[in-house]
Amino acid sequence: MAQIKPNNTYKINGVTVNEKIIPDGTRWKNSSKAAKAGFRAGALYKKQKKLTNNTGKPLWVTIHNTDDIKNVRDDGEQYTRATYNENMKSARVHFFVDDICAWQNLKAGTGKSKNDREGSAEAGWHAGDSSVTSGGNLTSLSIEIIMNDTKAHDRKARDNGARIAAWLLWKHGLPIDRLVTHTYWVNNSAGKTFSDVDRQCTNPIAGKKWCPAYIFGSSNQKKALRRWKKFKKLVQKYLDSEIAKAGE
Ligand SMILES: [Zn+2]
């Protein structure tokens, strides 16, 4: 199938974002694909609900990793197309980011496109916590950083992800400790909460999602914690420069 075209293209902190937000009112069409994802044909294709008690204000930014697709240059386009073709089961994320650009699938309240006005950030399906009011799906923006390719690819994809994460934190007035991992929400769902947010971000739970696995770079908790903190430092650097720019 031909590549899909974005509705709008804009830049966030130097990264090109192709906006292809799933329109409100989109419904599952293919009944067998819907069933595989736990839905029925005719059901809403995304949550279609504003974040955080319908305020449209995110409280967190959640980082994920997903796999690079072999022999594909624009991986985010491929993931977005798969989403539009009902091939991503129930996963709905705000941004897919790789080494060349990002693709936006859900409203994030950026104010950068007429489809994504300020205060319109919507819920995704990425944190594995269904419709828990204080959970990751209903309170956080999600970024899937596409990695597991060459070192150069992964370094750039990670950097692009950090730039977008920093900009979103800045845009929504959130401090760096509101940057969390998918695994943070896994712990939350398992009733495990730590006063140290980074500890919770990197606490493995057997048989549950360990994500962002490539940023963690290891299944060893100590190593993962070190690498997560390194990533956070990079985001902090970009966040500081956003704050400085805004103050000029
Ligand atoms: Zn994840």
How does the SSE layout of this entry go?
Layout: E1 8-12, E2 15-19, H1 31-36, H2 51-54, E3 60-67, H3 75-84, E4 95-97, E5 102-104, H4 136-139, E6 140-147, H5 151-171, E7 179-181, H6 182-189, H7 197-201, H8 213-216, H9 221-247
Helix pairs in contact: 5-9
The site of zinc ion has 4 residues, from loops.
Features:
7-stranded mixed sheet, binds zinc ion, 9 helices, alpha/beta, 248 residues, globular, Lysozyme-like
Question: What report would you give on this structure?
Answer:
There is one protein chain. The chain has 248 residues and is an alpha/beta fold. The chain has one domain: 3-Layer(aba) Sandwich (Lysozyme-like). 36% of the residues lie in helices and 14% in strands. The protein contains nine helices and seven strands; from the N terminus they run ββααβαββαβαβαααα. Strands 1-2-5-4-6-3-7 form a seven-stranded mixed β-sheet, with helices on both faces. The protein is globular. The mean pLDDT is 97. The structure holds zinc ion (ZN). The site of zinc ion (ZN) has 4 residues, from loops.
